[in-house]
Design goal:
Length: 367
């Protein structure tokens, strides 16, 4: 892209030089006294403008010398000043104000003797002096305007960066506040429920009584709630993955879920955003399978490709294609993560039974 811009700029410079040369040569062609030397001076003075971006001072010197020689030799009309006028404008725009003013004075001084009468000399000199003064001022104004635009753009970028940093800081503060509120309000209550259930189970067993299934369920549910709450608090405090998909599968197997992990393709380090999204997708899919699939087998597959990563979590549980589930907070959050990385997500019952979560995440966008 940068090379194309340079090529277009180069072509524009050449076209500009050609246009100036054509105008001056056309004006010179109507003068019967124009010689081959004059045409050569015009060509050199105009052709130099094609290099005004790379060497504005050199172009100014070449155009001024050849242009002055042309007007001293041929005594042409005001159109002969066009190459020098353009070089002065470009030099002033590049910041060489002194050189531009000096070249203007040299050319105007060379043009003074070309008038046949004193009145013509004064009129032409004043006209050219006004033109060159406008060229110098215009070049200076354009340079200042470009500098102002660059400063404005820089300030806008700095303001955008500052807003993003402030937003991230506020988001982190809000996560910490929510974590404190959850810890203070829920952890204490769940701990009491777990403690009371454990005491009741212990006393029942101590008396030789049969422990009610509901009491055991309360004990197990409170323990699971504590684990999930601690995991949630860790996420809120760090917003970073607390493990890997392999570790999630190991935890699911330890909890009694028949889960298996399969990795295909060339695995490698992932960008932070993508790594976090993969972890959360696998975590949410395994949690849903443990809650809703029943005694099912779960297959987690990570397929690494050149341009993306496909995460697939399937189970052979009780999901029915005729009764698609209503997306809850988990599936909604999963879809939001995938969408933020410009990926695609499919989550729903399979034709052969069970449930499938399949997400494709592009590596380029995540990077």
């Amino acid at each position: 892209m940068s090379g194309n811009r340079v090529s277009r700029g180069r072509l524009a410079d050449v076209a500009f030089a050609v246009a100036v040369g054509v105008i001056v040569l056309t004006a010179a062609a109507f003068d019967a006294d124009t010689t081959a030397v004059d045409y050569g001076l015009i060509a050199v003075s105009s052709a130099a403008l094609a290099f005004h971006r790379a060497a504005p001072q050199v172009v100014l010197a070449v155009s001024t010398v050849t242009g002055s020689a042309y007007v001293l030799h041929a005594h042409p009309g005001p159109a002969a000043s066009l190459p020098v006028f353009s070089a002065v404008l470009v030099a002033a725009r590049a910041g060489h104000r002194g050189y531009a003013a000096g070249a203007s004075g040299v050319f105007v001084a060379a043009y003074i003797p070309t008038g046949p009468t004193t009145h013509d000399v004064v009129e032409r000199t004043a006209l050219l002096a006004g033109w060159f003064l406008c060229a110098v001022i215009t070049g200076m104004a354009d340079r200042n305007w470009q500098a102002y635009l660059r400063q404005t753009e820089q300030r806008a970028l700095e303001a955008e960066r500052t807003r993003e940093e402030a937003a991230l800081r506020r988001a982190g503060e809000e996560r910490l506040r929510i974590a404190r509120e959850l810890h203070d309000s829920l952890t204490h209550s769940i701990s009491i429920v777990k403690l009371q259930a454990g005491v009741a189970v212990h006393l029942a067993r101590k008396r030789g009584e049969e422990v009610p299934p509901a009491l055991l369920a309360i004990q197990d549910a409170s323990s699971e709630a504590m684990r999930e709450l601690r995991s949630t608090l860790e996420v809120l405090r760090s917003d970073e993955p607390t493990g890997t998909p392999a570790l999630l599968v190991e935890r699911a197997c330890a909890a009694g879920l028949a889960a298996d992990l399969k990795v295909t393709g060339e695995a490698g380090p992932l960008p932070t955003a993508l790594d976090r999204a993969v972890y959360r997708i696998v975590q949410e899919a395994l949690t849903n399978a443990a809650r809703h699939a029943g005694p099912a087998k779960v297959q987690v597959q990570l397929a690494y490709e050149k341009d993306g990563l496909t995460v697939t979590v399937t189970d052979d549980g009780t999901a029915d294609p005729s009764r698609p589930p209503t997306p809850g907070v988990g599936l909604t959050g999963m879809r939001e993560r995938v969408t933020a990385l410009t990926g695609t997500l499919h989550a729903g019952p399979r034709e052969q039974g069970g449930f499938e979560v399949r997400a494709w995440l592009p590596l380029g966008e995540a990077g």
